[in-house]
Amino acid sequence: MEQHSTSGYYLITFPSVHHAMAFEDKAKNGPLVFQLIPVPREISSSCGVAAKVQHITKEELLQLLREYNLSFSGVYFYADDGFSKPQRVL
After folding, report:
1. Run of H or E including 88
2. Which strand ranges, in their side-by-side order, compose the sheet holding 33-38?
3. Which residue of 22, 35, 46, 73 has the lowest C-beta tally within 10 Å?
4. What is 2-61 written as a DSSP string?
5. pLDDT at 82 over 80
6. pLDDT at residue number 80
């Protein structure tokens, strides 16, 4: 499994806004650097909220998601190069 560096960010999508808010409640007092943003069109054409997470490796992020025990739809990696398409990692 490829490990991404912190030279980019992860985007976590959720099945509903309720799930995104539950994520925010759990994560706001933890180590994650994140913000809730609209889901980009290249991922989904439906409305929704995603969490943009920075300064973390994929393994660290997946461990935190397991600890939070929350539902999410997918995890995508965006490279900082400005050219790459988002890569689904989970």
Report:
1. strand 87-88
2. 33-38, 49-54, 8-13, 74-79, 87-88
3. 46
4. PPP-SSEEEEEE-SSHHHHHHHHHHHTTSS-EEEEEEPPTTT-SS--EEEEEES--HHHH
5. no
6. 86
- Say if residues 77 and 52 touch (Cβ distance below 8 Å): no
Cα(46)–Cα(26) distance, rounded to whole angstroms?
Answer: 25
SS3 assignment, position 74: strand
Q: Which residues contact 39 (CB under 8 A, 6 or more apart)?
A: 11, 13, 46, 47, 48, 49, 50
pLDDT at 6: 53
Burial class of 12 by CB neighbour count within 10 A (0 to 12, 13 to 18, 19+): buried
Give residue 1's pLDDT.
40
